[in-house]
Specification:
DCC1-like thiol-disulfide oxidoreductase family protein, DCC1-like, 4 helices, DCC_oxidoreductase, alpha+beta, globular, 4-stranded mixed β-sheet
Length: 141
């Protein structure tokens, strides 16, 4: 059992098909069962943005460590992806090799894909409701 108040939270685009499939994959491979999720347009995400004004215009995945605590940290874009790989551990640690690529280059690629993600993977009209078996891991679901 984990302390949900300090478990990391992944903010994601709730209507993005790619993002939703990624969240489902993360849940499937999450051996810890501690990572929680919230849509970027949720009340929780708005609270995070209020504490981190630099996130106001961010349309990216955001990995939030120690949410709501004084040492809260919000990690965005490709660095957020790396944080997820680090969290998942196991074979996903191999993907941390992308961290050897300079952040500017990684974020450039991240931004290029983000710009076409709806065309590539589709878009929902509303954020899908997670299945009951994992709903407790979603904030504001």
């Amino acid at each position: 059992m984990t302390d949900q108040a300090t478990d990391p939270v992944l903010l994601y685009d709730g209507v993005c098909g790619f993002c939703n499939r990624s969240v489902r994959a993360i849940i499937r491979f999450d051996r810890h069962g501690a990572l929680r999720f919230a849509a970027l347009d949720s009340d929780f995400a708005r609270e995070v943005v209020a504490r981190h004004p630099e996130l106001a215009d961010v349309d990216s995945m955001v990995y939030v460590e120690n949410p709501g605590r004084p040492d809260e940290r919000a990690i965005v874009r490709s660095a957020a992806s790396l944080a997820v790989y680090r969290y998942l551990g196991g074979a996903f640690r191999l993907l941390l090799l992308f961290g050897l690529i300079p952040a500017k280059v990684r974020d450039w690629g991240y931004d290029r894909f983000a710009a076409v993600r709806y065309r590539v993977a589709g878009k929902y009209d509303t954020c899908p409701i997670p299945p009951p078996s994992v709903r407790a891991r979603f904030i504001d679901a």
